[in-house]
Write a sequence for this structure.
């Protein structure tokens, strides 16, 4: 593991297996993170907040 994944792994404080243990690294896990340096750009309804923001503030 290198690059971005190695950097972001430093912010994972806890990992809990949720399902599909047999898939090993592809299993579904709940991650508890602290100070995770990312932006979430989709809301719970599937709206893309970046695209919507660009359209909302575009100078016409």
């Amino acid at each position: 593991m290198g690059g971005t994944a190695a950097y972001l792994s430093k912010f994972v404080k806890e990992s809990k297996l949720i399902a599909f243990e047999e898939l090993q690294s592809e299993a579904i896990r709940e991650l508890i993170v602290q100070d995770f340096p990312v932006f979430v750009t989709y809301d719970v309804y599937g709206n893309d907040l970046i695209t919507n923001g660009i359209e909302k503030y575009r100078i016409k």
In short: Residues 14 and 32 are 5 Å apart (CA to CA). The beta strands are 12-19, 28-33. The helical segments are 3-9, 49-57. The chain has two helices and two strands.
